[in-house]
Design brief:
Blueprint lengths: L1 H9 L1 E7 L2 H10 L6 E5 L2 E7 L6 H8 L2 E8 L1 H10 L1 H17 L5 E7 L4 H10 L13 H11 L3 E9 L2 E8 L13 E5 L3 E10 L1 E2 L6 E2 L4 E4 L1 E4 L9 E4 L3 E17 L1 E18 L2 E4 L9 E12 L2 E21 L2 H20 L4 E12 L2 E13 L1 E5 L5
Parallel strand pairs: 5-7
Antiparallel strand pairs: 1-3, 1-4, 2-3, 6-7, 8-12, 8-22, 9-11, 9-15, 10-12, 13-14, 15-21, 16-17, 16-19, 18-19, 20-21
Helix pairs in contact: 2-3
Amino acid sequence: MTEKIARWAFGTATARVSGDTARFMNVAVKSGIVPLKIDRQGESLLLTVRAKQYRRLHAVKVRTHARVRLIGRRGWPFVLRRALRRPGLLLGAVLGIALYGWLSGFYWGVTVEGEAPYAESEILEAAEDCGAYVGASRAALDEALASSRLQLALPKISWASMNTDGCFITLSVRGAVERAPGADHSGAYDIVAKRAGLVRSVTAESGTVLAEVGSAVAEGEVLVSGITEIGDPYSEEPVRHLLSHARAKVMAETRHTFTASCPLTLESKRETDTGTRRALYVLGVRVPLGLSGAPDSEITAYSREPLTLLGTALPVWVETLRTAAYEPVTVELTEEQAQQRAYEKIRQMQEIYLGEEGVLLSETVTYSLKDGVVYAFSECVCEENIAEAVPISSGT
């Protein structure tokens, strides 16, 4: 390996010698030419000598009347000579090396890995404020300090680290695990009915159950008391009352009326596509791909995608802007369509009201039309948790 490097550094030339090859070699050696390699090719010889000696082969050829043909020149001296003959190529190579060295002093890729309760765009924006962004100077970025600043900027993460690999940054983040809030055991509370209904079931964790399954209760009625009596009824000692935080789940059958409306005439907007504009970001410089100029209507879609090469993101992005114009239009609905929309609103109200525990048992829906507006009325029978904790007053 060392010999190959030395030969390339000093240069070698290979010539094909035919004719009186024996006399040619004798004269060449006596002339001070040192053969590096000799190969026979038929009746000819392939002679390899150093670059500084190959011109002396011409004098030996004249003396021996042999035929000599140069078939190859390799090594640094010949590369340098060709470069000096083409100053533009040499200048371009020098500028290319200088540009490569200058660009190597910046970061040209930032990726995010790990799980965190933030969107990737939010993490990249926070990292940019900490000094880690595409185009940031490698010499000016302190990875440890930037990692600490990133963790402070994103309070919902428990760990953040900036790992660099050449001109690329990898942001490793981990979301914080929040402890679920436990039940509030402080104070004395009763469980009362937050609305009237027919009790279906009572599941009490603490407290004295007063409501009976199958009984009707009014709004505000105590279902589970936070006052517990302690004492022996056969003893002469007085009964003591212990105040506690009553906890219970009371499922009851309730009745509700939901109302929604939908006009027969709606004012809407119609979208008209006004074009798509694209631009190219090269090393942070925006180059418009077209002569359309700035958008003169509302932007409805925006995307910015990096170009990749062999799975590696390049510092080149393609920006796409889609614009559209909106004009007001009047939409006429039939009575059936208006009823359908009004009922969809009622269904949304029911889902919000009942939540995850509530169940819709039955409903009766009626419609009416007045002044160009369709009204929907839903008489519902539901099963829901009517338990509500209320503090026990000091006078109780």
